[in-house]
Amino acid sequence: MASQHSRTSESTQQLKEDLQHLTQTIEELVNATADDSRSNIKELRDRAEKRLKDTRERLEARGERLYGEARDNVTQQADACDRYVHDNPWTSIGIGAAVGVVVGMLIGRR
After folding, report:
1. Per the database record, which ranges form the DUF883 domain (predicted)?
2. DSSP annotation string for 61-81
3. pLDDT digits over 25-84, tens only?
4. d(Cα 49, Cα 22) in Å, to the nearest integer?
5. d(Cα 58, Cα 65) in Å, to the nearest integer?
6. 51: Cβ–Cβ under 8 A, 6 or more apart, which residues?
7. How many CB atoms lie within 10 A of CB 18?
8. pTM of this prediction?
């Protein structure tokens, strides 16, 4: 759990850095357009496009990795639940019945 927290923290930090770089490049591009120097604008535009592409690729890779980790985590939790139900069938039936009674009481109050 701690390693997942540190990976999330690292991902958040990397995202902040990527967005800062992108923002900085866009600000440079906006400032350069005030000069109306065509060669300067082209150079900054190329840099902005490159950083935007790099940032997009990083975000896509990070999103895919996080999705995979979440899918694996849910699968592990479902497997653990399945094992518990198979190991403790009567307890599982009792829990299901108790939840059914509570939900029935809540619905009946309306």
Report:
1. 13-60, 82-110
2. HHHHHHHHHHHHHHHHHHHHH
3. 777 777 766 666 667 777 777 787 788 788 778 878 888 888 888 899 999 999 998 998
4. 9
5. 10
6. 21, 22, 25
7. 18
8. 0.48
